[in-house]
Design a protein that fits this description.
Layout (H helix, E strand, L loop, with lengths): L4 E5 L4 H11 L7 E6 L7 E4 L2 E7 L3 H4 L3 E4 L3 H13 L3 E4 L22 H7 L1 E3 L3 H10 L9 E8 L6 H15 L17 E3 L9 H14 L6 E8 L5 E8 L4 H9 L4 E3 L8 H4 L5 E8 L6 E7 L2 H18 L9
Parallel strand pairs: 1-2, 1-5, 2-4, 5-6, 6-7, 8-10, 12-13
Antiparallel strand pairs: 3-4, 8-11, 9-10, 11-14, 13-14
Length: 335
């Protein structure tokens, strides 16, 4: 039986392609899938389950009236099209929270709390967190019942967090460095190859990305955003993110590890050395390991690795769409 009609906006980007791959193996695989991209990013076709589907101009999406829309668009583009599609009756999943501020859909992650169906219907869809917010929420959620209340640490992002063009630029910078040439610096003005870039912000201030991640965790889990104080840096890797976290409020490392091991969306690694970006590429869970009690008795420390594209970019929004469709939200949206 055919499922709903589904549109993927930004289908030629790294997140859009990951969404299509995830959809092809999901409960929505029998749906009629449409791919859209801006003129600058268009290709003629993209892959969906081993077959090619045509890529349409993004401006045509609003007139196609799809039942479900995955928006994998940058903020500037999402601002123009997401509210229009939601107002016309499509169920919009804003991937990575790009539409925050102009789209009232609730911020959700599957499995953490009951879906606020009335809020989704009223807004015309929902938002999913960005990569940092997804990782922190995944780790903190199962630890809250044990008393966890504060998270600090460092999250390292890859070039893929900035899109396909950023991945290509990092590759070009690596080659240029070896050839003693001036590398392209459109996305990474200071250069990224063989380097680490901390978030750029005014002295003494937290960056917009760091503050945004704490707000996402707060909105999903109901914790005070001031309790989420994690620094972010970008590493010269193409895909996959890592984090070194200190979680306060826990007094039993064994209980914390057991809670993490049984939580949905998390997985433990057999060896700590496997917890690095290359080893988790293409995998949806957040992997954790190296959990140990703080030497001063102030909570626990752990090491985390995850594929930001496969997880936050594809697995979470597709799982959320499955839940919303199963709840009948596509047939009772308020235009």
């Amino acid at each position: 039986m055919m499922g709903p009609t589904i549109a993927v906006l930004g289908a030629t980007g790294s997140v859009g392609e990951a969404l299509l791959a995830r959809l092809a193996t999901s409960a929505l695989a029998s749906s009629e899938i449409f791919a859209y991209a801006s003129r600058a990013m268009r290709r003629d076709t993209v892959d969906f389950g081993g077959r090619s589907i045509a890529v349409h101009v993004l401006a045509e999406a609003a007139d196609s009236a799809p039942n479900v829309v995955f928006s994998a668009l940058p903020v500037s583009v999402a601002q123009r099209i997401v509210p229009t599609l939601a107002a016309r009756g499509s169920l919009v999943i804003d991937v990575g929270n790009a539409a925050a501020g102009f789209f009232a859909g609730p911020l959700l992650m599957p499995g953490l709390r009951a879906i606020p169906e009335a809020d989704v219907a009223r807004a015309g869809g929902a938002r999913t967190p960005g990569a940092v917010g997804w990782l922190l929420t995944s780790v903190l959620a199962p630890l809250l019942p044990l008393g966890a209340h504060t998270v600090t640490g460092l999250v390292s992002l890859p070039a893929s967090a900035y899109g396909r063009a950023a991945i290509e630029e990092l590759s070009q910078q690596v080659v240029a460095s070896f050839n003693l040439q001036d590398p392209p610096r459109r996305h990474f003005a200071e250069g990224l190859a063989f380097d680490t870039l901390p978030e750029d912000s005014d002295g003494g201030e937290w960056s917009a990305r760091e503050l945004g991640a704490s707000q996402e965790v707060s909105e999903i889990l109901g914790v005070n955003p001031s309790r989420i104080a994690v620094q972010v840096a970008t590493q010269s890797v193409f895909s996959g993110m890592t984090a070194a976290l200190h979680i306060r409020g826990l007094d039993n490392a064994e209980a914390a590890e057991a809670a993490l091991a049984s939580a949905p969306g998390l997985a433990t690694a057999a060896r700590l050395r496997t917890l690095r970006p290359r080893k988790v590429m293409g995998r949806a869970p957040v992997y954790f390991g190296g959990l140990r009690a703080d030497p001063a008795g102030d909570g626990v420390h752990l090491w985390v690795a995850a594929d930001n594209i496969a997880g936050a970019g594809a697995a979470v929004p597709v799982a959320l769409a499955e839940l919303l469709i199963a709840a009948g939200l596509t047939s009772r949206l308020e235009a």
